[in-house]
Design a protein that fits this description.
single chain, five-stranded antiparallel beta sheet, globular
Length: about 180
């Protein structure tokens, strides 16, 4: 089922998510609905707060953005109760966007690598190092479960330039190609 994506201004987007247990009611269905919702909105990642759930769950699919023949360099997985172990490598800028903040993009500086401890959809524990674009998307989605948005990292001049657009999103006076739930 395609769920509405919560827009900038929704309080759940600024809250730190709560850890969940394996008996979280409807978890498998929730994950399936999140995949469907993410693909419907042409996303490469989606966090539970973006669909109104204040829990530590996010999905990432970078396989779809890899060049032909390099798909195996991407990842497609669910991350539950993720914890940053370490970040490192040379920080680099990359233009980011967000399904909760449609049609807004900006350069964000992030470390090149992240080491993460997390549970997969089967509640198996992993500790893995991710780098490059995979690390970037994970860091973006991880920020969602910590109540942060990519716009929090933008330089002041860029934030001033997009202020009117952000206000329109908060008010729900924008058109989107996917279902959204506005704060109004």
């Amino acid at each position: 089922m395609i769920l509405p994506i919560y827009a900038l201004g929704q309080p759940v987007l600024k809250k730190v998510g709560e850890p969940i247990t394996a008996d979280y009611k409807g978890l498998s269905e929730l994950i399936e609905n999140m995949w469907e919702t993410m693909y419907n909105a042409n996303g490469i990642g989606l966090a539970a707060p973006q669909i109104g759930r204040g829990i530590r769950l996010f999905l990432v699919d970078t396989v779809q953005m890899m060049d032909e023949g390099k798909e195996e360099e991407g990842i497609k997985m669910a991350f539950i109760n993720a914890e940053k172990v370490q970040e490192g490598g040379n920080p680099w800028y990359y233009e980011e966007g967000c399904l909760s903040i449609p049609d807004v993009h900006g350069d964000v500086e992030r470390p090149a690598q992240i080491k993460l401890k997390f549970l997969d959809a089967d509640f198996k524990e992993h500790v893995k190092v991710f780098s490059g674009v995979n690390a970037r998307v994970i860091q973006h989605e991880y920020d969602h479960i910590d109540g942060k948005l990519f716009t929090d990292y933008l330089k002041p001049l860029k934030r001033r330039r997009i202020k009117r657009k952000l206000e329109s999103i908060k008010k729900g006076t924008i058109e989107t190609k996917y279902k959204m739930k506005f704060a109004r």
